[in-house]
Amino acid sequence: MTNLHLIRHRNAFFKAALVKSALVALASALGLSVVFLCLARFSPYSITKSALVWIWLSHALGWTLFQFFSFWRLKDTRRLARKIENRYPELMLKVRSVLDFNEGKSDSQSPELVDQYADKVQNLLDHAYSGLGISRHIWATAGATLLLFAPSWLAWHSYLGLPKTTSSLVFGNTFLQLDGGSISIYEPDYTNIPGRTLALKPGGYEAYPGSRVQFSVLPQNNLKRLFFHTDKMETAQEIDRDESGGFHYEFVLMEASQLEFLVAKETDSGKTQPFVFSTKRDLPPTIELKSYTNEGAVNIFDPLMIDASVRDDFHVTQLEAVVNWEGGEKRIKLTIPNNQNKHFLSRNRWNLSDLVPEDVSHFSIYLEARDNNPVNGPGIGQSESLSYELESPDRKHDEFMEMARELLNRMTHTLGDNLDTELQAQHNEYLLREAQRLSEQIQSGLMQSQSLTSMLLNMMRQDPYITQIDQEFLQDYRNELTQAFRYRIETGSLFASVNRPQGNPAALKSLQYKHKNEETNLEQLTYELLLQLKLWALLELERNKNALEDAMESLQQMMDQQDQSSDMEEQVRKALEQIMKEFQKMMMKAAEEMDRDMDEFMNSEALQDQKDAMKELVDQIVEAMKQGDMEKAKALMEEFRAQMQAAMEQMQSAMGQMSPEMKAMMESMREMSGLLQELKLQEEDLESKTQELRQQTDQKMGGNQGLSPKQKEAQKKLLDNIKKLLGDLNQRLSAQQQEKMGEDLVEQINQMRAQLEDESLGLRERREIEAKVRQMENSFDMIMQDQMRLLQEVTLKSLDSAESMQEYLDHGELMPSLEMGHKLENQLISGSRFAESRLSDQLENQVKALDTFNEASDELYKILDMLQNVKQNMEQQRKDFLAQKNAKDPQQLQEQQESIRKMIESFKQAHQQNIGGSPLFQKLDDIDMVMRNASDRLGDSKLDGGIHYEQEALKRIGEMMEQMQQSQRGQGRPMFMGMGMGSGNQDGMNGSPVRDIPIPESQYQAREQQMREMIRRQMQKSLPDQYGKEIKKYYENLIDQ
To answer: What is the pTM of this model?
Structure first.
């Protein structure tokens, strides 16, 4: 028996022991690791992560030593045999017995028996080796080890999530609070946001990129070490103590991050709740439209209004209005309020002629703001885009003239009803019933005429061709209609006495007398209106003529300045054809206005010959241009122009020519238009410089004092009370039904006049009734002249001014709020005077208008006193500051204002004779006076006052330009090669035709001599100098016809 067989068993036992011991060591290490990781997470003490390394190193070393020891023990044969016998009970004592026989320690009688016994044991050993495997203990150990892997894996990943430091410390998840400390955040300089210091508390913080974040932790007795850790770091870093024993840490925030502190104290350790930092990203400026002119069609003479609220985190450095139209864009720089460039109201008013060229029919506009963000800017914000369509200015004129013709038609039928009324000397019941029916129609016609006249007066401000003289005519005409209406009421009241069964000859005679007087009055009213319509037609013809002449002049200049080209030939042909087309429309219009056909107005044969000659001239001009003979083309153009002027003169001879004085006046008007353009440009430049000087001065002074919170609260209460008073008044006025009130008053007046016919009335009673009648008539006049609506308009305007003043005060805009307050003051005074002078006692008792306006004025004066005191303080501060600095800027601005004024004085001296008495010339005087006030304020270093009067001058210049813009030449019309051309109804130059409306056939016709006499009475009226000669000349032509 050899040892070879035991070596195989020894190796098998060693391998099994190796596996078992390895599993036991692994399980032990895993278990201890779990314990370590739990301590690391939940222990109040910081644990060094090297302890985990020692656990695994000690187990590895112990396992290795254990294997050497096991191998050494298995080298002992006896011990190996005993182990085999213990493992396999059937071999008990057999293996050692064989060893004893082999070593001679046991006697044997027969060697053969020993060999047989050894072979038997060897067979048993071989059989045992083939069945040798890993015992159940090994399997149990392996299973336990595997079960430990799951919590060990979770604990390990939890360990990986724990904050660690470069000092091999591991901190658990115990949250601690740092007592005493602060966090300071300093925003970048470009934000102009002051730094802020907060208590050291975990949570969320927000700042712009580039902000410095500084942590300060005060000295604490039990605080040994402090680390910081961010989500961008693998290991925490320790913060060194400063000289005072505290801790300071600072970093620059560039992106969103999370930071926590690891705290090692004497009694416990852990970490703080996270400090979460997020970065702000600047959004573009936001522009919210508060109020604006309604989108759609707008009249070219109405101002465009846009009010917007502008907000931005940074400073708005630029604000513009961007106007777009087909083929063009215009940017208008808007003013940013001083020291309010983060949130402010931008109030803008433009004349449409300043926004778009005259040939534009559609455009859109929006506001655009830019800020000064250097990181992700500049931010650009835009408002909602508004779209508008320019109405032809002549459409309003057409509507006006259409209503004027309707008024003439109504007056003609009213006169016809009067002429158809038959009153005989003897009582005739049938004729009286018919006369009473016609009387009611006359009364209704006069009431409708009054209403139409009031509507015409309301439309005047939208009509570019209506002048102050026309307004005065319509106002006087409405007053005459009111008197005629009252006279008709008196006349109609006589029917009650005439229709009595016994009759009343005196009443019938009085009725006939009043009816005859009314007939004369109605004839005069009708012919006055007819003559005014004819005068409007004459002036419109002059405008059309001027437009065509300007078009010809522009075409001539184009031929003089441009080189010959194939395109130019076609353009000239189209332009000349268009001019002929417009000329033809103008002739047809003139014929319609004179109530004639073309054959009557101008000789048909001569007209056709003239058209053929002009068409032939057009062909010759184009042909000369094709041949390169520009001199011949220009000569033919002059001939074409001469023929057109001859035709125009022929039309004027048919309608009445314009006097030389009127022509000189119109020429002066054209030069005034150019003056206003230059005044506007220079005054805008001056106003911009004054604004800039005020802003710079305020910055150097460190800002101006404003209203205190207590003053703001007091002013808000006063304004709320004013708005409540005006709102209640508006509701009371809205509740008044004027039409029904008018009908009731007429009925009451008729009843009282019928009472006055009672001869049994005493003198006292008669006087009382007459007083009531007069009072009712005054109330009726108030209603018929649409005064209630005008009073409501004053109320609504006052309410709107109060709202605007409140907005200015809410945003701290002192000067605009003061200006709006003075505007509101004027409106309240106007309303008070209106109510006092025009409201009857009966209406005043119902609406309480006078008391409301007076009470609102008292409240407003309290506000204005406070604002005026603040304004004076601000003005005095600027004045003193500029005086200390010995600044010359105000004097330079004053000199610039004086130079602008001299332009006005020079113009006035040159054109005094032509237009010295016209309303526009007087407005030029008003502008000069306003500029003088601005100059005085600037000379006294009162910048606010200077800016106020500069803006007032610009406002008046703009209003004057709008009024003049269409008075002599049409604008806003289609363009041909850059020339303003006249056009008919379709193109917007000519209004609707004004023709005579024949008086219906009746029993009475005005004789020729009476008509002449009426015209002569018109000529004797006092007329303004600039129009008197023209109107009288026109009347002379009418007499000749």
So the answer is: 0.41
